[in-house]
Amino acid sequence: MEQDTSNAAPVHLVLGGSGGIGATLCRRLVAQGARVVIAGRNQASVEALAGELDAAHASVDASDFGQVETLVKRVLDDEGRIDGIALLVGSILLAPAHRTSVEQWRAVVDANLTPAFAVTRAAGRFLTRPASVVLMSSAAARLGLANHEAIAAAKAGVEGLARSAAATYAGRGLRFNVIAPGLVDTPLAAPVLVNDASAKASRAMHPLGRIGRPEDVASAAAWLLDPVNDWVTGQVLGVDGGLGSVRSRG
Fold first, then answer.
1. Whole-model pTM?
2. pLDDT score for 1
């Protein structure tokens, strides 16, 4: 049961909160005066960041519907409110469809689309006051990139999910938006940036000529979470150095 905490600091739940983008977002939100609940599967890194920020934390497998629902209910019980949920989990698979195994396909869906649906479902079930939900897509969902079939399909599903949820829950003041990054320099992208040649090729794909930084995406997520921007819903925000929409002459 949500309590009347209208004058309290905003409460944000960040799943994947100890990852490269997640940790940056958590630090930004705390610096802005918010209360943050950091959740993730790597309990050691979650606890370390929570200790640094004096924040609440939880262990969660974001692909498990029951665990996500339990977490959302727990945060509501403990904090009295949830003003925003950011889902920053995911994976990268670079392979053409004919070389993608059934197991790899299912793993991509479970790492990217299933958590987005689990979070959306829990928000729809338990959040009864205005709040912002931020999901993650990829520039690959809007731009045809070779060898991205599985991840492009899963992320395109996230975008469709968010638009539909934005319509379904608008009357309740729940906002659903998506960030679609280009390649960002995080541990998840390390295999792509493993050597100078692949890093140079990756930079060249982005019209602005560089790989994204965690701060680029975290600042966009913080903006979407901010209730000041409560007239924004059902949007896909490209934070991608121009990759998804611009062609430069180079």
1. 0.92
2. 46
